[in-house]
Write a structure and sequence with these properties.
single chain; 96 residues; alpha+beta; YaeB-like fold; 4-stranded mixed sheet
Length: 96
């Protein structure tokens, strides 16, 4: 499967990485690697994460870091919909 990103997901990652780079460049590298590694697994293991209450949307937790990745599987593509810090207010999955 091919991993693709929505515009929203790309924007989420830019914002997260920019924030972390300003706070702690070395810590930012660790978080980036963890996020990218987990997303990379989706190409081979698209059903690794449980589905949410929203039909066909999965929620993948980043181990050791407070981030969640929301994604959908369509045909041969895994679409990253949104990346979110867990301390933010809960997401309305209907927005995805």
């Amino acid at each position: 499967m091919r991993v693709r990103y929505t515009l929203r997901a790309r924007s989420d990652l830019r914002e997260i990485y920019s924030y972390l780079d300003k706070r702690s460049p070395s810590g930012a590298r660790s978080v980036k690697r963890a996020i990218e590694r987990r997303i990379g697994w989706l190409a081979d293991f698209a059903s690794i994460a449980p589905k949410t209450d929203e039909p066909e949307v999965h929620e993948l937790t980043i181990i050791r870091y407070p981030y969640k990745i929301y994604y959908r599987v369509d045909d041969n593509d895994v679409w990253i919909l949104h990346v979110r810090h867990t301390s933010r207010r809960p997401i309305d999955l209907g927005e995805l």
